[in-house]
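In response to reviewer comment 3 from the previous cycle, which asked for concrete evidence that the modeling workflow produces usable outputs, we include below a single protein chain processed end to end. The sequence was submitted unchanged, and the resulting structure tokens are shown without manual editing.
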Amino acid sequence: MTVRNDIVPPAVELTPESFASIEGWANLDLEPPLRAFQRSARDILSVGRAFSHRPELGGAPRHWKRVARIALETLPKDARSFFESQFAAYRVFDPHRPEGLFTGYYEAQALGSRRRHGRYQHPVYARPSDLVRRVIDDGSEGVYGRMEAGEFVPYHTRAEIEAGALEGKAQPLFWLDCPVDLFFIHVQGSGRIALDDGTMARVAYVAKNGRPYTSIGAELVVAGQIARDKMSMQRLRQWLAEDDGRARELMRRNESYIFFRELLDVPSEEGPPGAQEVGLQPLVSLAVDRRFWPLGMPVWINTTVPRMMASPERFQRLMIAQDTGSAIRGAARGDVFFGAGQDAAYSAGYMKAQGDMVVLLPKPV
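The workflow returned the following structure tokens.
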């Protein structure tokens, strides 16, 4: 039986699935996703970012509030009974991407300084004073722009910003020594900066210019510069490092530009806050398309993950949707947060795999 009701748009199918039939479910450690869901539960019951964009799928907010209250009273030893008693499982089929698609992201790293000097010439900007977000009453994120002569106009592009458009409008938080490292901090949405004074700083997304996101890796594939099956973040970085001029021209094709805030008093072992403003947990937090799903939703995925110095391994996990991203588009689409460090960068950079996706929705749906 396929569920089709007012929750589900005609194009996407949610098929009921028993927990016993989910491959690997019986052997999953469900305590980490319970702890992650408890963090999301506090947002669901207070700020409510989970439904701030009114997703097309996922059930009613009142049902999520009910399971959120129960979650906060659940002990770790009762994690399995909590998920199995409070949720119903549905396999996701998206005809636009029948095979599903899973990628990865991580907390990027760079070298930098709090002041501009020497090799540190590439700014990490705070939110500009003239950036305006216009809210649209359709459940979307809204539109970013600026006011010019009394009219709301699109915000500056990446090329315009790099040419000095933010002079006197945005405070540089840090200065990096490498424009490519800065670009990848933009793509990942967060970063760790090893400063020239020996300390470590962390930054996280705060706003964007609202311009469309363009995958420069896809641009190189279309141009025949890199074969599709050879494309990865590592191969892209290598291409960019070969020529500064062509790297700058290619990166500017992605007009999207990200602004940041410095993270203070966040434990080093904890990930940056995602779109739900809860700390991301490596291999437990997932980015999804908010047009379809609410933040905080448990998601089981079955795919493969590349590993440094080892063969790709089967990845069957229950994860919590706590983030989103401009490149995450589709109902059967997920982006796994891998954390920080070399291993995380490797897995995130090479991961692009098909797989299955089962969402857990509160009873009743």
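The two ends are 15 Å apart (CA to CA). We consider this sufficient to address the reviewer's concern, and the full set will be provided in the supplementary archive.
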